Amino acid sequence: MQKRQIIIHVDMDAFYASVEIRDDPTLAGKPLIIGALPSERGVAATCSYEARKYGVHSAMNIKEAYRLCPHGIYMHPNFDKYRKVSEQLRQIWNDYAVRMETIALDEAYLDVTYSAGTFERAGEMAREIKSRIRSELGLSCSVGVAYCKTAAKTASEEKKPDGYFEIPTAQDFVDLISDRDVRALFTVGAKTAEKLNRLGIYTVRDIQERREEIIERFGKHGQMITELAFGIDDREVTAYKPEDTKSISREMTFQEDVENYQLLEDILFLLAMSVERRAKRKGLHGRGVTLKVTYADMKNINRSRVVTDADSAATIYQETVRMLGQIEKRPVRLVGAGIYNLIGDDGRQMSLEDYMEDSAEDRQRVIDSKLAELGQRYGLDFAGNLEKIFSGETLYRTAEYMRKHNR
Q1: What is this structure's pTM?
Q2: Which of 24, 185, 19 lies closest to 87, judged by CA?
Q3: What is the assigned CATH class of domain 1-167?
Q4: Is the pLDDT of residue 193 over 60?
Q5: For burial by CB atoms within 10 Å, which of 206, 254, 304, 346 has the most?
Q6: What is the mean pLDDT of residues 64-73?
Q7: One of 20, 50, 107, 276 is an active-site residue; which one?
């Protein structure tokens, strides 16, 4: 008989904002919004709890955030710093988990079924994790301990911020959420909730009472929803594998709409270089290239092309430029490049081009020629700066400099 699962869910409190407050204590107690600046296009990535009191939340349009909280402090995110802190968090979590499933830089499920042995010991571990994160990193987190992933996630949200909560059994979970909105359940998003509401189903208890009807109407998804309503979730913690990633992409939102398509081609080159670096770090290879364009009127264009060497910056650049040349020429707000249909090093078969030195040299010539062209056109010196340019906020600043230089 399989041992009952014991899972800890750790969720950092306002992660980006908390890291910035830790590093600059003068920000403590103030409404801090991390994301775009009020004068720019973009959204709030996260915000401090003081900012949330004004109705600001993650993914909110930055103009709306500023309207709600004009006296807030607005900052660009520093992803390089957040990634370093995230790695420190993983080192702590790894000391306790047999398996760890990271959801983002600041959130993870930890399987402690065998490392803890008992629910009581799991609770001790969870408190140790909170204590270590506080003492070693100067940050707070909310932690839930439960018998399944859904319950653990619910538990970590129960006492935020800096919270701790336990849900030992399925009955405890059902007792806790039965009278809550249907969106309290994993997989019930806004659209599913709307469909349920149209049927007169508003609470988890409604789902429990109308189980057969929901399964009949929603099929497999309905089966999952009704099982969750009764506290049934057999999903296991799955260690993250880079090859599970479905796609890798980079996008650029311009502060002013762009009508110069030569500039767009140049930006696609930078994005292609960035995508290549991300893919190499994860040991992934693409078998298709994507182009994304958002026009000034917010209409989105998505194009894709199957290719054999989609992890090469030269190929990504050439294919996205080819697709760009096939769409309507109108002012552009956003442009993006990516690769999809990914496989890891182990699953990749060598192609004829892999054995031909001339092919690799041709690709490098494309890169070198384009770098020289950009250097001459915009007065940029890429020598020794490539890694810095293609990571973090520097890429955005470089692209904005190129846009302004092209006026």
Answers
A1: 0.73
A2: 19
A3: alpha beta
A4: yes
A5: 254
A6: 97
A7: 107
